[in-house]
Description:
The structure is a homodimer.
Chain A: H1 2-22, H2 28-43, H3 46-57, H4 66-81, E1 86-98, E2 102-108, E3 112-114, E4 116-118, E5 130-137, H5 140-145, E6 155-158, H6 170-187, E7 192-196, E8 222-225, H7 227-237, E9 244-249, E10 252-268, E11 273-283, H8 293-311, E12 319-326, H9 334-342, E13 350-355, E14 363-369, H10 375-385, E15 391-393, H11 402-408, E16 414-419, H12 424-427, H13 440-459
Parallel strand pairs in A: 5-6, 6-7, 7-8, 11-12, 11-13, 14-15
Antiparallel strand pairs in A: 1-10, 2-3, 2-9, 4-8, 5-9, 10-12, 14-16
Helix pairs in contact in A: 2-13, 3-8, 8-13, 9-11
Protein name (chains A, B): Carboxypeptidase Q
Keywords (chains A, B): Carboxypeptidase, Endoplasmic reticulum, Glycoprotein, Golgi apparatus, Hydrolase, Lysosome, Metal-binding, Metalloprotease, Protease, Secreted, Signal, Zinc, Zymogen
Subcellular location (chains A, B): Endoplasmic reticulum; Golgi apparatus; Lysosome; Secreted
Amino acid sequence: MLKATFKSAVLCIAALSVFTAQAQYLNETEQQQINALEQTALNSTLAYQIEESLTTEVGARMIGTEGDKRAIAWAVEKMNALGFDKVWTEEVGHYQWIRGDVEAKVLVPFAHDIKAIALGESVGTGDKGIQAEVVHFNTMADLEAAKPGSLTGKIAFVSYRMQRFKTGKGYGKAVGARVNGASVAAEKGAVGFIMRSVGTDNNRLGHTGVLRYKEQVKRIPAVALSNPDADLMVNIFKRNKPVEFFLKVTALRNEIVATKGANVIGEITGSELPEQIVALGAHLDSWDVGTGAIDDGLGVSMVMAATAHIAKLAERPKRTIRVILFAGEEVGLLGAEQYIIDHKDNLKNHVIGVEWDFGLGKIYSMQSGVGEKALPAVAELATYLESLGVAYNKGNKARGQSDMGAVTDKGVPAMNFSPDGTTYFDIHHTENDTLDKVNAKDLQQNTAVYTVFAYFAAQAGVDFRK
Amino acid sequence: MLKATFKSAVLCIAALSVFTAQAQYLNETEQQQINALEQTALNSTLAYQIEESLTTEVGARMIGTEGDKRAIAWAVEKMNALGFDKVWTEEVGHYQWIRGDVEAKVLVPFAHDIKAIALGESVGTGDKGIQAEVVHFNTMADLEAAKPGSLTGKIAFVSYRMQRFKTGKGYGKAVGARVNGASVAAEKGAVGFIMRSVGTDNNRLGHTGVLRYKEQVKRIPAVALSNPDADLMVNIFKRNKPVEFFLKVTALRNEIVATKGANVIGEITGSELPEQIVALGAHLDSWDVGTGAIDDGLGVSMVMAATAHIAKLAERPKRTIRVILFAGEEVGLLGAEQYIIDHKDNLKNHVIGVEWDFGLGKIYSMQSGVGEKALPAVAELATYLESLGVAYNKGNKARGQSDMGAVTDKGVPAMNFSPDGTTYFDIHHTENDTLDKVNAKDLQQNTAVYTVFAYFAAQAGVDFRK
């Protein structure tokens, strides 16, 4: 008992000292406000309702598709309904790509149907498909090391297995094959490229995701096998017999057909410094598989709900809070690139940017990417987030995620919140990206973090550049 | 310390008393033998190797397909290679059914692609598909209560959600819709039947499984939606707007085209009572999705490995151990029915039967279905299984699983082993039924249980009928 009491007393003194030493950016009323906002977000189902609405009433929304058009209309309507002060769209152009279907089979030595999905923006095989021997590589490095011409007329198969981490860092090592594998294989003569999915699950669902064709290299069709199918292929290769494969991909890449998407932007206007913008990003587009609940419905719901909570206060915070729902993130940050062009003269007024485009668990860590003089303010923000279980990582090396990364690379200060990403790559870019994967409690915590951050950044008047 | 020592002593005395009171069916040498067999099975990778071989070299094997033919040849070859004394096949006939593809969409009020799979032996829709309004029922009972004619020209949707249990008992309440839903809906005028999958997962993969069309009722196409898609439909229905659906099923049910499968049977011949048969069952066929790793590759691997372990003893046990790999279980116990016909005069010599066709975790319980006088022998068997964590359920109401249930219904005594089935219905009848779902450690325990049982039943000479 004594020990416990003593410990409480120490904690109490520590808390007081934090309060007195660091609480200089928000006054007492504002502190009550930020704590009340945290509780509002923690107890609100608004973010989940937005998520349910987006996935139910819109669903899949790849840039340029009918789903994307509906998503844009949905976002405009929703932001208006939530009480945003201004809502508008800014056009983002792309070309047509149609996924089509994949038919994949092992023909020899053992007949198997193989579940696979076209990599994003892959070319097709033509109606007859490809029949060819498969050459197996354990890693992308092994494929890169293959001799010129050694894959002539063959299909290259990279079976690298992505590793699972809370931080999601296994993605970086795995994604190179998806982005570059087809062109590397084609340079050595391959007629097709197949790979183990960039994902940590064992479902019979391939993970899509965009590829990049190198210029001057023949474009060959590229697909990701579901992970159990990749396992099967590896087991077949253990028999040391030639493996004959059939691959038909009906994808169509029509670069001469223009399509359109749009960044959807909504604001609550600052009461004192309306020209200064706190930017909350997410991407509105999804792949054309699943309903984009996690990638990036979570981000969309969170930034809209956080802003809506703040919009319900009696007064607007000093600065403007701008929600940017980027277009065409999945096919290459198209919306971010367009945003940077459209707002190039105004990026200096973007005081800080944050995005959610990763993970689906609780946020456990915050890191800034700001000027040194702003660090005490970040430390104060961290104290408001402690009760939400968010630790303060003082590295100060953050850049924004995804789209916001492109924006902050242009000199806009960044904040980054790290959620638990342990299971994110089970779902990422698959048909399994659906509403049932959303944990409503975690979404409340995530939204509370974004709400607290947005209020602080908009109200405290900190120059995060300095 | 004192307490612990005292407890050990009590346990020790208890163990001794069990030994002296019940160990009357196996002599000391045989007891050493059964314990050694248990250790052999626990340390052996044989069952896993068989499983890997079946799923890699054969894969999906629905009755009548090329995969099934390869499975039959594989099973004959494997049993011979494992040292079985006799191996043969017995033909089982069926008709042709081809799964084809399903194209399913919600058209109104929100366009969505829906993932679904044809129920086993469903008819197709024709090339144009069906476009119709959907009527939603929460349960099969609600569908049954619908007024005659109330579904004329419509698609019936049952959204009942199967519950998860260790015993798998949620299946019984859920499967009625799959078996009978199409005909019940058709009786009320429906042109199509869609349902939430009979499964406990949330993957975008439907669960197939056989349906039964009632005689004199129009046969309508029937599909199972993946569970996330069923959730989506339920959420759409919450908007209280008419739901328009498109369904195209290219399945073909050709009852005039005969197909063939076979029961594959292998024995190690009894050294003293060769005419007396201990029957170990599993089914060789699978659905045409996945590689049938769990359903019923596990059973196939286990009964083959258990028998192979016993075949390596210096002497054959007294009775014959017969492995029966049944044909066409999935489409309605066809192999079991044929076996009962082919062996009707010899069922009296089947001293006991057991099958594995459920679950994928450790076995935690044993229950017999034998004559009362045989119960002391079962109790002794239970003592040999204690070290494997198998509790003795004294209910004595077991019938065999699946095929062996049909056999034991003809008067053959039964044993039943209950494995942990918590996750079984995540995978059951889906594309996800693949090798990666097999837990090699659990398979060792399972195989050890079957090995111990088979040796005991073959060696102890108990009349399980009395």
